[in-house]
Amino acid sequence: MNLISKTSDLSKIKASTLIKFCAQDGPKNDPSLKILDKCIGGAIRKIFEWSEFEGKLNQTSVLYPASSILVDKIILVGLGEREKINDDSYRQAAGTISRLLPVKKSKSLAFFFDLHDDSSTAQAVAEGFLLGRFDMTDYKSNDKKNSNMNESVCFYSANKAGTSAIEKGMKRGQIIANSVISARRLAFHPGNVITPITFAEEAKSISRKNRLKIRVLDEKQIKKEKMNALLAVAQGSDRPPRFVMLEYRKGKADQKPVVLIGKGITFDSGGISLKPPLDMDEMKGDMTGGAIVLATMMAISQLKIPLNVVGIIPLAENMPSGKALHPGDIIKSRKGKTIEIINTDAEGRLILADALDFANKYKPQAVIDIATLTGAALYVLGYAAAPILGNNKQLMDAIRAASEKSAEKVWEMPLWDEYRELVKSSIADLKNSGGKSAGTITAAAFLENFIGNWPWAHIDIAYVDLEKNGKPYIPKGASGFGVRLLIELLSNWKEIRK
Fold first, then answer.
1. How far apart are CA 491 and CA 305, in angstroms?
2. Which of 263, 222, 487, 217 is nearest to 369 (CA)?
3. What is the pTM of this model?
4. DSSP-derived secondary structure for 295-331
5. 134 and 235 together in one domain
6. What kind and span of H or E run contains 152?
7. Most Cβ neighbours (<10 Å): which of 242, 304, 377, 417?
8. Active site residues
9. Does residue 50 lie in a domain region?
């Protein structure tokens, strides 16, 4: 969908549907809402007075003005209490109206922005509207391709200065939303479609379109790199592993890169430690960390962020077979550390271990890994936020700041010696599971053994990667959580001090 920006007086906008955001105090402190109310004979003031519409967050009301105004419908959408309004209020409100039938059936839509609205507001609206209307219909044989009739979506401001700011935010929001949708689509595809090989091919396609440098290692090259942990996870499957490296170089020549690493298990059966059948279909999304990294690389290229960034995605399928990794096996990682396999369903940390060690090749200034890693994350923060762990306060503070701005919530967990002890093995250097206690933290304690001498953060998205019920701009299914967080982080990046 193409979004465009225009300048116009509110009363002169011509469109099928005009969308106006409203605070809970109604026309009282909203000059443009007063103008609109006067144009349609006081109908807006009346619905507020009669409490038919109160401007509560995500509340909507559709009006059909019988007047000289040049729109067929007006949709009011609530932002909540004025003092609590932020960018995510706009993002939620825009996501809410994106799925309304009167909006879907409108050929032309017009959003009107007040003088106090800025590029940040427009970005949030663009994100919310595009993310809220996303629907994965690739596998529906009777899908109505034209269920959304919108031929044009215009962002209006009353003056040219406002239009310039609105256009800037609108374009940024569109790039970010499309990147999130790219990650969602990858995570939605089933395991018989997205395999290590087809994921790598998708990465190549995205790289070509976005001028990213890419290299993909096959199983022979992975073996040459001594990534035995990645190979061990993949050995139970007939589908061979892949190892993807993406490079974006728009920072200074001597600037050390930020490295992003995403877990890419394209289907996780649990291996010999087989998962219960209930909800195993969701394990097609165990490559979401990899999808987040790929989508983030795409976005930062389009946004032309002045930074050097490397994306690493280890890819494998975790399956049970006569060739599969056994509980009790001992393997040697790329770093040379030996690992006792306690649970073959703790496979994500194995492929990340080799990827974290490989990151040393880039002499990074910081490394961030993101993964659907532990079931224990559910018992830490539920479905509301992602646990984060790391070794550098400046990096963790930056992630928290990006979380506040993007509304993708994170919370830092401690990484103490008591947890490190739980992943030590009596017969090898490490074991890949510390047991039930503090599973999210012990997984990070395991990964810590493979990092180099650089700032590192780990983001566990195990229960925020999938939306069970649907939210204003996150329909039911793959959420794409992490893309907006990482883009915000990289957009405001400051060199990390060790």
1. 6
2. 263
3. 0.96
4. HHHHHHHHHT-SSEEEEEEEEEEE--STTSPPTT-EE
5. no
6. strand 152-157
7. 242
8. 275, 349
9. yes
